[in-house]
Amino acid sequence: DADVTQTPRNRITKTGKRIMLECSQTKGHDRMYWYRQDPGLGLRLIYYSFDVKDINKGEISDGYSVSRQAQAKFSLSLESAIPNQTALYFCATSAGLAGFNEQFFGPGTRLTVL
Amino acid sequence: KQEVTQIPAALSVPEGENLVLNCSFTDSAIYNLQWFRQDPGKGLTSLLLIQSSQREQTSGRLNASLDKSSGRSTLYIAASQPGDSATYLCAVRPNQAGTALIFGKGTTLSVSS
To answer: Residue A41 — pLDDT band, cuts 50, 70, 90?
Structure first.
């Protein structure tokens, strides 16, 4: 079984809709991250969380919000989706300093906003 | 602001060749550097992690080096195979507390049989 899972894997939605992407991990890691990947722009950090009570904005947080429901769950929400949020979204985890911060990625969610 | 650059953006080689992928970063104050592989439309697979105090790491046919003072890392792939065809991403974690990875845009490798 995958250590980092993301649901849904693919989603097509319309402008203005609220969308939630979910991430779960069984690695026991305390740190979780959301990135988006766009052709020609690479991966960019949206939000990250170092524990359940810690939420931090990344490079491109505008238009997004997150919730860390438990150590193993980190969800990303688009309150009102817009077409330029069409991208491949990745969740990642790491064990923090004790684990040298090696990051492990989920399989990704392909989101299309029409 | 830390920036990560990967050159070349794309590379085509025949099977069996040894090859080197390059990664450079602008700020040498990094905690570690990680190399990933990404197949088309798929997630990222961690290949090698080099701590700032290390010079290189090896895994099978892969060897990654780190020269922090010059802001460079290389990924050496020995005896390339068609199955090595993928995009290779380099990412650094800055020293500052509370920061996550900063990625290069990747090198897309094609190995022909």
So the answer is: confident
Answer yes or no: do A103 and B34 touch at CB < 8 A.
yes
The neighbouring-strand residues paired with A77 are A20, A65
Which of B3, B103, B107 should we substitute to test contact with A (largest number of A Cβ atoms within 10 Å)?
B103
Task: Decide if B93 contacts A101 (C-beta within 8 A).
Answer: yes
**What is the structure's pLDDT at A96?**
67
Can you give the pLDDT at residue A44? 93
Q: CB-CB: which of B51, B98, B101 is closest to A103?
A: B101
Chain B residues touching residue A107 (CB < 8 angstroms) = 42-43
- Integer angstrom CA distances of residue A77 from A22, A23, A111: 9, 11, 12
